């Protein structure tokens, strides 16, 4: 790490003095700055990770109304916490925050301790949050170094070390610690963050109005725009996912089928549309041009959605010209009641497929894949109708392209039916199987007609049991269930007429 003029004693004290004075005169009035309650500061710092201030404010205020104390957060059901966080992204932040609050209840009697080590040991609190909470709430001289702060200090001291490397962060933390003026750690750390957010911005630093411009080595060297040095992160891995927007009929008309994710892993515990990952082989086929459904058919509908400064962003693309595939009529229109009507529905479906209404082989393959995968993974037999939209979602390590297919609900396969519905040979190519759904449906319908005579429950009726974790919802249920951003956007598009 090279230190030039700014690195002298005079240059350092100049930086700290001017920054502090500027912050105290110019600081923004933000809701979390009106309190030194460590709980409130903790919540705000977690929300602000990867997310812009303007986006955070309404979430913070709503969260504080719902969970005004650490105890209220600790005792709340996790589903409520996730619901309150819905739309902010990075949902593990919410889960960890609540886990940390529960640790404070258990270990520290409900009070965030004035103890650097103890705070650093709480779930979800890393070096940055620890420094922010300790300095702002307790005025402890702890550095709080995030990307903004690394950028400002790299420029002021003209540092050429790669800020993507952990050892550079450690070095900058040591430097920041030395700069903290006595008795003003909270304001100094917030001043650094504020300078990075408002003036020393990534692309166009406002050097001419910067309080530390006189001794800024980066500016004096004309390198303010090329610093900091940061090697590019690995590109997120692309994944193509097919999601089924399964519409109910009869008593379930107006509802759609959703499922809850497992308690652990990515987006744990959140709700989503049933969807399947398209194997690499399929993606490769599509890339080779044999599966023509692609970007050319979609139109970008908006800018990157918040949160989106760094890691996560979301873009939803609406299909401009929806290609009608397998236009065989709504389930409700054909299979109204009873087994005979249901059988008629299956027959009509097969005739329509064999009549060649599915024009695009790529779409047919995808729909068959969707039907097959959902049947295998979730025991639901559904019938795809048309593509509804394409949505993209960026995680830090993954990029999902979610193709949403409007489908009708067939029924829940029973174990013996799955065996019957399985393809004769795994070697068979999907395109040669006709429609998996139709084959499966016909086989199953025959067995079902006998079953229904004894049980009185016809396939697809409202009281047919669903697999665990699945439920039918209407727009009103969206108030209660937490969905990841990508599915939230899809459902808002689907239920356009409702305030979700
Ligand atoms: S003078 Fe320019 S480059 Fe230096 S800290 Fe200020 S805004 Fe950043």
TrEMBL record:
Gene Ontology biological process terms in this record: base-excision repair; mismatch repair
CDD domains recorded: ENDO3c
EC number from the UniProt entry: 3.2.2.31
Domain of life per record: Bacteria
Keyword terms: 4Fe-4S, DNA damage, DNA repair, Glycosidase, Hydrolase, Iron, Iron-sulfur, Metal-binding
Record keyword 4Fe-4S present: yes
Entry keyword annotation includes 4Fe-4S: yes
Domain HhH-GPD: 47-198
Catalytic activity of the protein: Hydrolyzes free adenine bases from 7,8-dihydro-8-oxoguanine:adenine mismatched double-stranded DNA, leaving an apurinic site
Cofactor: [4Fe-4S] cluster
GO molecular function (one): 4 iron, 4 sulfur cluster binding
InterPro entries to which the protein is assigned, alphabetical: A/G_AdeGlyc_MutY (IPR005760), DNA_glycosylase (IPR011257), Endouclease-III_FeS-bd_BS (IPR004035), HhH-GPD_domain (IPR003265), HhH_base_excis_C (IPR023170), MIG/MutY (IPR044298), NUDIX_hydrolase-like_dom_sf (IPR015797)
Recorded family membership: Belongs to the Nth/MutY family.
Role played: Adenine glycosylase active on G-A mispairs. MutY also corrects error-prone DNA synthesis past GO lesions which are due to the oxidatively damaged form of guanine: 7,8-dihydro-8-oxoguanine (8-oxo-dGTP).
Protein name: Adenine DNA glycosylase
Organism: Paenibacillus sabuli
